[in-house]
Amino acid sequence: MSHLSEGTAGFRRANRALFAGGLVTFSILYAVQPLIPVFSREFSISPAMGSLSLSVTTAALAVSMLILGSLSDSWGRKPIMVASLLLSSLLAIATAWSPNFSTLLLLRLLQGIALAGLPAVAMAYLGEEIAPSSLGTAMGLYISGNSIGGLAGRVLGGTLTDVFSWRAALATLGGISLLLSLWFWRALPASAHFRASRPHVKELLLSMGRHLKNPSLLRLFMVSFVLMGSFVTLFNYIGFHLLEPPYSLSPSVIGWLFLVYLTGSYSSARMGKAADHRGRKNMLWTGLAIMLTGAALTLLPPLWCKVTGLALFTFGFFGSHSVASGWVSSAARTAKAQAASLYLFFYYAGSSVFGTLGGWFWSGFGWIGVIGLILALILLAFPLTRPLTEAHTSVDRKAS
Q1: What is the tens place of the pLDDT at every residue in 41-52?
Q2: Residue 101 and residue 334: Cα distance in Å, rounded?
Q3: pTM
Q4: Which of 50, 153, 175, 255 is most exposed, with minimal Cβ within 10 Å?
């Protein structure tokens, strides 16, 4: 059977389904981010504790992605993705009836495990089923579903909470996700080119060990760790800052601030392409400098400075992430898919660690403390990337 190519009905069905799958996954994952101040107030817990509603999910997602990607080699791509979306949606509905914060955290932990099924498998499905000439288009549509899903979850979560309640917000998002998941099950073409294979645990562990012993890859993994840690920390606690006087913004307005993510859609494509011509070091350091500028700008009192700073920070983050993640493929000599999974593991681990640690800085030092932590993390990325860049320049020249 031929691969799905652009212009065919099967190609359109596959792309619409995976767009919907990405939208469901990342809307569920990030819907709670603008609600962290609400949880902190309702359950009488600290900001750091409230941030666990996101951190436990990203931590479980990070670990589970490493496992589910390998299991799909024997269980199949579509079954893993369908089960992931359906279970995640049902758990999202269940969170709306959490009697206490401990129950909410347990359900969010289970959600993280379930959510990992789609991002761990989707790219492998596309690589197997889509014709090489159409793969770039298909991958772009899938990633756009991810980014729009994260944006939609945050905006709708904040808005519905403001109008109704956080329980109504999570139940509504869960119900919409369940309907989209059922449609995904029906619409996604079954795998035609998948060949089951038994995962060799020893071989996987040895390969993972080789990646972690590769100094260049390890530096890239640490860059993803500090970049995502700084990014999630900023957006976890900006809500607390803007809920206070003199701003006193509502949760819905704070949710709409996540529209600055649209700047990231532009910068990720633009800076990723520019890295091919101007060099990865130049573009990565440019992105980091923009992040530093944006974070520092949020320290100024006027609201327009804070919004502008958020937009600049987001622009720089997605541009830097695009360059660093693209670098992993060239740095990994073998098992490139596993190297990409490890990059994402460190990426979401950074989100979990610093997303919660930032709460202690907020409680102890306020917004200045949060930005101090973020600036330190971004500055750490410069020495991490300097030897990496020099080593890769020589490797690239030899390869050419």
Answers
A1: 999 999 999 999
A2: 43
A3: 0.83
A4: 175
